[in-house]
Amino acid sequence: MPKPRLPILRTKPGNKNETIIAGATATDASSSNTRDEGEELLRRLNAYRQEWKELIDRMVSSVHFRNSDNIPMLLNWLWTRFPNKVTDLDIEIEFYGNKHAPSQIDTGRSRVALADLRKKVSAYQADERGEKWLLEPPKGKGGHRLRFIPADRPSSAPHAFWNAHLRSFEDPVLVTGSHLFLFDPNQNKIIRYYDFNVKGEPDKEDILDAFKIAHPEESFGLKASKTLEPWRDVYLASGDVIAHESFLKWFHAESSSKILIQRKTSRSITTNEVHRRNVILIGRPQTNPLIETLMKSEPQKSRFAFRIHPLRGALHVSNVCLRDFPELAEFTISSDGMVGPLETERRVFGLFTRFPNPGGRGYITIVSCGHYAMVIARIVDAMTNESHAKELLKQMGWALGEPLPDAFEMIFTVDIAPGGLEGEGFPKLLLWRQC
Known about the structure:
Elements: E1 5-12, E2 15-25, H1 27-30, H2 35-60, H3 70-81, H4 88-95, H5 108-127, E3 133-136, E4 147-150, H6 157-166, E5 172-176, E6 180-184, E7 189-191, H7 204-214, E8 229-232, H8 238-254, E9 262-265, H9 271-276, E10 278-283, H10 289-295, H11 300-303, E11 306-308, E12 315-317, E13 338-339, E14 347-356, E15 363-369, H12 374-383, H13 386-396, E16 408-415, E17 428-434
Parallel strand pairs: 5-9, 5-10, 10-15
Antiparallel strand pairs: 1-2, 3-4, 6-7, 6-8, 11-12, 12-13, 14-15, 14-16, 16-17
């Protein structure tokens, strides 16, 4: 009599990135190199099977499976046959109890029920993105079998970078910088100083006092007079708009719930929202102060090595030995850890930083630079593009289809006006590290 078969996660031969459910006899565990390995395999098999059964129980009790007696029962019946394959004819005979001769049985009812099951499972998983496992309902002419996939396993190269936000309990939110403009009513024009921004909500007098300190050369001119009016976010940076459009396109295409990623400025989002949302922050630390606040706080302060330096075109390095990073050898490095600046070389740095949200739910991703926002837009575009993201993973030495660590950081360089042509070049990965 054959030994009972247990479900395991196994890779299909010739494609080690595709996880499938396959049957394996209990003796597979005893064929491991050591008894301890066999016992560990059996322990994981039992744990996985329990998690899969609990997932199915949550599904059939959800609102998506209500008012449909047959579909929840069909899913439970398929589970009882797992990991064996069943055919449409098996469903007609064993599930529906069709007593006719097999040659006289029409299997259309089974195909319709399986299509309905796939719709309901898809709807459930669109609403419950915090699940550890994804269930792929049966399909295929060669027989049907439930298939369980780890939810954090990337299905494409961009998924490796953005699954943390795509598979989360709540839709992500993009937070851009907040820009201060000064309106001069005497000249009827709006002025913006790249190096002048304020944090918090100071009143008009405090803003103008800070402006006089930042730009004393204007202190006797009309611009420094009391007629100046501080205006917030009159325009959005074009790079912020383009980055948002890249995120909109990718998240909407790749999510079963068709996510339309929300955009807010750092001034319009509350800290409570940051704590409970899956946040993507972009911008310069000077215009998006949430970046600076998070990176200067523990555990990020001692966990990460790279930050945008206040000096334009420079990085600040800490918590690591620079000798461990030969990729930085070509740059000027000061004794206090300042790398660059690169302004004279027409190259700028960009950073990608990922870590679990300190608020306890979800993740925070930061894409920052010390230059204008189009640099960030180019990085986002590369990381949401299949071919470019695949090349990045290859440069990182990371297997396609494997989830990236919970916390890591990447340094890019971007050429400005390459070849004398206006615009930004393709972002080049300088180095990355797991944190």
